[in-house]
Design goal:
Two copies of one chain form a homodimer.
Chain A lengths: L9 H18 L6 H8 L3 H7 L3 H24 L3 H18 L1 H5 L5 H6 L4 H14 L6 H17 L8 H16 L4
Helix pairs in contact in A: 1-2, 2-3, 4-5, 4-8, 5-10, 8-9, 9-10
Chain A binds a DNA duplex (30 and 30 nucleotides) through α3.
Chain lengths: 185, 185
DNA sequence: TCAGGTGCTGACCGATCGGTCAGATCCGCA
DNA sequence: TGCGGATCTGACCGATCGGTCAGCACCTGA
């Protein structure tokens, strides 16, 4: 009965986060209102704004773990060069995409707007470095096109396979990424 | 002076279409207001709704050529089987993506919502047939993952290369698609 | 000259958005 | 018993959304 009543106050907080993640993934960030989230949890819209400073703050908290992992990946890529960096980028990004496919899915097409926000400003630069690594640090158009197709394709796709386990999705994504990125030099 | 004054009334109409296409491509459909479009053209919001029955109607007219080409592609794929259908799908889709990259870009992430609309309802089924053709009509998860990555990657990417000519973008996209889709059978 | 259609507009509508605020309720603790 | 903080709420705010409408300016053909 006193299970983890140690911090009972966070129950609603977590419920709201979960509900927001579910909603965002289906109708997008702009397409989801605080009313929608509140209704799902069974509280008032004011309660949502009691637990989160703003709608943006809610999104930030939701994306924080994924962004942390992305920053770690960025650092790992920077520690390598050439083909090793490329492999690290592909492996790491696929891993990130699989683990956070729900969070990535909810950004579907709202990246441009969200990147404007200060909290997400550096994501833009990280993703540019990711594309460069995927392209093998070549500036040939073919290499850049292939890099963007794979990057965007994985990001856009991973959210569609919520039903199959990580261990099956990861190798499938890695295989197609490796095949697509074998750019002739 | 009497150039093509034959139909001078369509000037604003076309300007509005062009402005809407530009805006939608940058800020998305939901993220663009009729005010924005009107301001770009230099007319009032009411004028936009004089030329188009609704915001949705504007989008429909904007997408009509691309949708027609997509339907033609669908028919062409249905006329083939196996590897031929797959090749027809890849070639045709890349061609469509290159030619209508602006229009495709503006649907970024708003597909889910827009497909709900009756006018776009059948696009859902066409895209499913496209994925199936890309996957070589296999239901193996690896094949379906690769198909979706390539399809979504191309759709998501083509709008990023508005500055390079069709003749350069098309072979680059085709190359990465062929590489990625060489699924081992 | 004037009737009628076309193109266009400002004012306005109801709905919904994110966000604020005063206060109600409930709690552990002195 | 009562105080204070945490949790939650309904009412409300200004802004913006897509859309409506009466009417103005202009051109054209009878």
């Amino acid at each position: 009965m006193l299970e983890d009543m140690a911090r009972p106050t966070t129950a609603t907080h977590d419920e709201l986060l979960a509900a927001a993640a579910r909603r965002f993934a289906v109708t997008g960030y702009k397409g989801t209102s605080l009313q929608d989230i509140a209704r799902d949890v069974g509280c008032s819209k004011a309660t949502v704004l009691y637990h989160f400073a703003s709608k943006d703050a809610l999104l930030c908290e939701l994306m924080a773990p994924a962004i942390t992992m992305l920053e770690e990946l960025d650092a790992r890529i920077a520690a390598h060069t050439g083909a090793e960096a490329r492999r690290a980028a592909a492996d790491g990004f696929v891993d990130l995409a699989v683990r956070f496919r729900r969070e990535i899915a909810l950004l579907r097409g709202e990246f441009p707007d969200l990147l404007q926000q200060p909290a997400f400003a550096h994501i833009q630069q990280i993703s540019e470095r990711l594309v460069a690594a995927f392209a093998g640090f070549s500036d040939r158009p073919e290499a850049r096109v292939a890099a963007l197709v794979v990057l965007a394709g994985i990001a856009e796709t991973c959210g569609e396979f919520l039903d199959i386990p990580d261990e099956q999705l990861r190798p499938a994504l890695l295989a197609v990424a490796y095949r697509a990125l074998e750019v002739t030099t």
